[in-house]
Design goal:
CATH class of the largest domain: Alpha Beta
Number of helices: 11
Order of helices and strands: EHEEHEHEHEEEHEHHEHEEHEHEEH
Largest sheet: 8 strands, mixed
CATH architecture of the largest domain: 3-Layer(aba) Sandwich
Mean pLDDT: 92
Helix content: 25-40%
Number of strands: 15
Strand order of the largest sheet: 2-3-1-4-8-7-5-6
Length: 385
């Protein structure tokens, strides 16, 4: 099978994580960009990347890159592409455009011009034209304009890869699955200890952490990838790759626990864990973290996303973050505690010195992923041993 170029899209700040994932999966010529990583592989690798990458949002297969002077020029160059080789006149298409240019302003208009060129070509050659179907198109086309350079790609993923398929329910401020997986990876979680999310919401961080610990491909539960509607779709190859990925899963011999003080969040988390078939690894409990203590002497890896924004309005921010610090200090020795927050003011009240701070984005919000190392006994005692 021949190799071709591909681009994996990701969240800002996760480029290095994604590049490492791609390299470990066996991609060639891996290069990081901004919110993207380019690489080379064959069709089987494209299937594998969609199934197995944890920090990718989309896998694009570039078709053509050209220089454009104006909208008419774009239309002419899109029209020249032999679209009939990639889809049938009775099929359906959807176009997504992103534009970074002073010359071309409106991504909607660019998408419309592209659609016109494609359907006009079909009408001229075949006498009939494909339909637009935004939800389940046979071909999803991505147009990217950077200044005057236009790249036309096929979107092999379809719906964003963060939609893993295990979430039926989310609570007020759910954390996106790709973001959760990236945070777990940034925190250095390796599946070699107990894991806890003391404010687990709908359970996303726990589920992603369990899949990492067991090396379960994150997108096995997906109903469909866009490439399954392509004309060169190879179901036997896909199943072979799926089997090979499944044969690399591993056992996990520690405990994973999630607490939440909202009964509805607890119910949703239990449901999502069950959908992901991870209930043998993850236990969800209805608990107020501030009233808990760590059980046992085992090392604990903790990662959580405290409530913020609207969810915090009913809370006193200073007191809430101070309680996090106090609970960690008095109740959780032998713990590496990581938390993500966009509330920089709140962080000042934790009262502990973070040993790491990593800048990340939660949607549009700039946030910090911070690490607090809670030692067994005092630090002095630890050093003199």
């Amino acid at each position: 099978m021949e190799n071709f170029n591909m681009v994996a899209k990701t969240l800002f700040g996760f480029e290095e994580l994604l590049a490492k994932e791609l390299t470990q999966l066996g991609a060639q010529e891996v290069k990081t960009g901004v919110r993207s990583v380019s690489f080379v592989g064959d069709k089987g690798f494209m299937y594998k990347a969609n199934m197995a990458l944890r920090t990718a949002i989309k896998i694009l297969k570039p078709l053509k890159t050209f220089h454009i002077k104006n909208e008419q020029d774009l239309y002419d160059k899109i029209y020249k592409i032999p679209w009939e080789n990639y889809m049938s006149e009775n099929g359906s298409l959807a176009i997504n455009a992103t534009v970074h240019s002073d010359k071309f302003k409106h991504s909607q208009y660019i998408a419309l011009k592209t659609k016109d060129a494609i359907v006009d070509r079909f009408r001229d050659i075949k006498g009939t034209r494909p339909n637009v179907d935004l939800r389940f198109p046979d071909l999803k086309i991505n147009i990217h304009i950077d200044r005057q350079t236009c790249t036309v790609s096929f979107d092999s993923s379809g719906e964003s890869l963060h939609r893993r398929g295990y979430k039926t329910a989310t609570n007020i401020a759910p954390i996106n699955e790709v973001l959760a997986a990236g945070l777990v990876m940034l925190s250095g979680w390796d599946g070699q200890s107990d894991f806890m999310d003391p404010m687990c919401g709908s359970g996303t961080i726990l589920i992603e952490a369990a899949m990492i610990a067991c090396n379960i491909p994150p997108n096995l539960m997906r109903k469909e990838f866009a490439f399954e509607r392509w004309q060169d779709w190879d179901v036997d190859l896909f199943e072979k790759i799926e089997e090979s990925l499944l044969s690399k899963t591993r056992d996990f011999h520690h405990k994973m626990v999630g607490y939440d003080k909202s009964p509805s969040a607890v119910n949703k988390a239990i449901e999502n864990v069950k959908n992901a078939h991870l209930e043998e690894f993850i236990t969800i409990k209805h608990e107020d973290f501030f009233k808990t203590r760590k059980g046992g002497d085992e090392h604990l890896h903790m990662l959580f996303n405290p409530p913020y924004g609207e969810r915090l309005e009913s809370l006193n921010v200073e007191e809430f973050y101070a309680n996090i610090g106090t609970t960690l200090k008095h109740g959780y020795p032998g713990t590496n505690a990581w938390l993500i927050t966009s509330n920089m003011e709140g962080l000042k009240h934790v009262g502990l010195r973070p040993s790491r701070k990593i800048k990340v984005f939660n949607g549009k919000l700039e946030a910090r992923l911070v690490k607090y190392e809670m030692y067994e006994g005092s630090k002095k005692a630890k050093k003199s041993n």
